[in-house]
Specification:
The structure holds two protein chains of two kinds.
Chain A lengths: L1 H16 L5 H19 L4 H25 L1 H8 L2 H7 L4 H35 L7 H25 L4 H16 L1 H10 L2 H13 L9 H5 L6 H27 L5
Helix pairs in contact in A: 1-6, 2-3, 2-6, 3-6, 3-7, 6-7, 6-12, 7-8, 7-12, 9-10
Chain B lengths: L2 H30 L3 H6 L5 H7 L4 H21 L8 H11 L4 H12 L9 H14 L4 H14 L3 H12 L7 H11 L4 H14 L3 H34 L6 H6 L16 E2 L5 E2 L29
Antiparallel strand pairs in B: 1-2
Helix pairs in contact in B: 3-5, 4-5, 5-6, 6-7, 6-8, 7-8, 8-9, 9-10, 10-11, 11-12
Classes of the chains: A mainly alpha, B mainly alpha.
Amino acid sequence: MNRIAAVASNTFREAVRDRVLYNLIFFALLLVGAAVLFGQISIGIERIVLINLGLSAISVFGVVIAIFIGIGLVSKEMEKKTLYTILSRPVRRWEFIVGKFGGLAWTLVVNTFFMAVGFFIALFFLAHHFERADGWLVVAIYFIVLEFVVVTALALLFSTFSSPVLSAVMALALFVIGTFAEDLRAFAAMSQGVTRVLATVAAYIMPNLASLNVISSVAHGQPIAASLILYNTVYSLLYAAVAICGAVLVFEYRNLK
Amino acid sequence: MTARGNTTLVAAMLLVASLAGASLTVRRLDRLRAGATAEEALYIPSPKILQRMSVGYTGLLADIYWTRAVQYFGAHHHVRSRQYKLLQPLLDIATSLDPHLTVAYEFGATFLAQKPPEGAGDPDAAVRLVERGVRENPSAWRLYYNLGFIHYFERKDYAAASDAFERGSRVPGAFPWMKVMAADTSQHAGALQTARFLWSNLYETTESEDIRVNAAKHLRALRVDEEVSALEKLTSAFHERTGRWPPGWAELVAAGYLRGVPLDPSRRPYQLAPDGRVLVQVPEDLPFITKGLPPDTEPSNQPRGESK
């Protein structure tokens, strides 16, 4: 456990050193600009726009970080030869993978926390008060974090066997497919014969990110069902576990020479 | 077993178990969020804003909205819903994003026009949709054909139907029988044979299996309407001759009115009511019929024609 924590902590420190958290400055500028701008040019929907923009920005920034750092987690260590130093110590390959995942996930949680703080400050600046329904915004941010967990795990999986560019393309493609996962399953349910079987299998293998996106509904103050929170949490953790297990299996047999 | 073997075994088992668990959870999520996709799609109801947001990928977005409209209709039709409130906005957005998506006008108008539970029961909205389709795609003669159908069957506006068929017949590539339709719908408005002519042509010429199935249902319903009228004429004739209604088909067969017990298209015998009326046994299996419906049963769609 200590070894996993050590790898995770180093991954986090490396991300900070790589100035990953600089995106927070862009995020802050975006929100401040949006809050001021929409307050002046829009009537009635400035709050909705700020929520949509803020939460979407948190999601986009996080997904970009998850993909572009996730894909380099293994390849970079190999390129810099640091992987051999780590694995020559009593660190097992699976511990390295789990630790790397934990470190990046923690980086994203910290990043999201600061963006969420900035978002709520901007919201307060715009509306001058918080509403009861704003509590659902925290749930939406929590779902975004779950989305990062899934995307990070996928990026890590691809990084164990593919080049960084190809890994980025594949992870981004799965992210896009995942946002339309419900359409894919509905398509599978409506098709027949072999198409139905293939589409159903594909629909369940692809990540389901659609149910994690509640930005539009919380922007309209709609509550989120407790069961949705539960199932989304369970699903995201299980799906991330699938991807990490896949990464462990691939990395375990990868020739590192 | 080696350490690597242990890791492989545990990881593989975890992978399979997690995948199974994730699939089961997704099923729960789908049940929890039934219909959410279509509703969320309408949080931005303006096609113009969507056009801007699609950053040029309007065709792709239109396809997605059209697919969602089909899914929305399919899900509601499956449970025989009488409410299709999101159908029109979804179709409007799909066709605004891609005005040349003729399939959305054709099918969408059918979905909108037919009476619940077969459709949204809004023929005026269907006409508006197809008229817009005609304006955007003046060479798509099938849209005129759709328009004529809706005017004829759903709105009973025979002059408008004839006009639509006539306009369509002038479009290059249109089937020659469009001209016949234009004449027939104006001369024999409301007649059963006109209705049969229209549905038969649609059945034979459509490239869509769904439309063919729908046309077959309508043709079957026409057959029921025709058979019920003919059988009721026989029971009336029996009543006039004997002064009483026939108690069952056997008596009509014995009297030489029929050769056997009459069956409806679902292969079930027609029922004979004590007052001589002829009824179908399971009206749900015979959508669109207007005759032979048991008392207190609402027709599932408007009549397609009346016997002359």
